[in-house]
Automatic annotation (TrEMBL):
<dbReference type="InterPro" id="IPR011008">
    <property type="entry name" value="Dimeric_a/b-barrel"/>
</dbReference>
<protein>
    <recommendedName>
        <fullName>Antibiotic biosynthesis monooxygenase</fullName>
    </recommendedName>
</protein>
Length: 109
């Protein structure tokens, strides 16, 4: 029964779309991975996408609930974000999305 109830529960994705200063994507990627490693409660996974040949990217972080992201903010996380802030060409646009569909036999988002 709990598997069925888990199926009915929707997950949420925090999406950030941005562009880094030329040649800074790799440094930003390391900091992103470090920041994501601090997440615990409600965290379901993360993806970092890079448009080939550019410093443009999309970060997708999966959560059980929208509040889980705020609950995972810590001093360590804030310090990492501060280190990352100067790498952006312009501030990223961010938003939450509800996961409406998962397709695939290994879908464990």
């Amino acid at each position: 029964m709990s598997e069925f109830l888990d199926f009915l529960k929707h997950k949420y994705a925090y999406v950030a779309i941005g562009e880094f200063k030329p040649g800074r994507f790799a440094e930003a990627q390391k900091l992103y991975e470090k920041a994501v490693s601090t997440y615990t409660t409600g965290f379901k996974g993360a993806y970092l996408l890079q448009k080939p040949g550019t410093d443009e990217g999309i970060a997708v972080i999966m959560w059980d609930k929208i509040d889980d992201m705020q609950d995972n903010v810590s001093e360590a996380y804030e310090a990492i974000l501060k280190q990352m802030s100067h790498l952006y060409k312009t501030p990223p646009t961010t938003s939450f999305y509800e996961v409406c569909s998962e397709i695939g036999t290994e879908a464990k988002v």
